[in-house]
Amino acid sequence: MDILESLHRYQPWNEQEARDREEILRRLLNGEPLYTRENASAHLTASAWVTDASHTKVLMAYHNLYHSWAWLGGHADGEKDLLSVAMREVREESGLSFVKPITREIFSLEILTVDGHEKHGSYVSSHLHLNLTYLLEADPTAPVRCKIDENSRVGWFLLDDAVAASSEPWFQERIYKKLNAKLLQLS
After folding, report:
1. What stretches of 81-166 adopt beta strand conformation (E)?
2. Do 50 and 90 touch, CB atoms closer than 8 A?
3. 84, 102, 119, 154 — which has fewest CB within 10 A?
4. How many Å apart are CA 173 and CA 6, to the nearest integer?
């Protein structure tokens, strides 16, 4: 599905999403190269809020870079189907072999700031992640494993426990609580 079409159809949940959607659309419509990391100031990423069939648990990974439990996801790296990116990242970061979208529509969107950091021995300047989040489902009894260059643990959490597990207050308040509230509306 075309990202512009998806973004135009998307109904923002709150003011943050409305403003972030406007900015992502502005950058895309202005022709910024956002699908690769060549744009050092901002690029597209895809995340996943992975839940079980009952919508009572979510999957998180302990990310080495941020020293926090977090959702799974990553860079588009040239791929224009961001749902596929989110699914690929979940499989890579968790070892899950089967994950399916609950819907192909965008579940959430946000612009995330990334502080400058070292990755694979090189400095990465501070930049923005123009992030689309997708709602995926997986079996919490399926085996998981770490992706040791990115995370040191992977596990399932009850919804409130997932928020509490994060050590990043902005993500707790602005992202994970929002994702849980939206998930509960589906139940």
Report:
1. 100-101, 108-114, 117-119, 122-124, 127-137, 151-158
2. yes
3. 119
4. 25
Domain count, the chain: 1
Regarding pTM above 0.70, the answer is yes
Domain that holds residue 163: 3-186
**Spatial separation of the C-alpha atoms in residues 155 and 141, rounded to whole Å:** 11
CA angle 111–131–118, rounded 5-degree value? 80
What's the gap between Cα 153 and its chain centre?
A: 17
**151, two tokens:** 């995370």
Report whether 90 contacts 136 (CB < 8 A).
Answer: yes
State the DSSP H helix or E strand holding residue 42, giving kind and residue range, or none if neither. strand 42-51
pLDDT tens digit string along 7-39? 999 999 999 999 999 999 999 999 989 998 888
Query: Which tens digit of pLDDT belongs to each residue from 87-109?
Result: 999 999 999 999 999 999 999 99
Which residue stretches of the chain are H helix? Answer: 3-9, 15-29, 82-94, 159-165, 169-171, 177-186
CA distance 128 to 172: 19
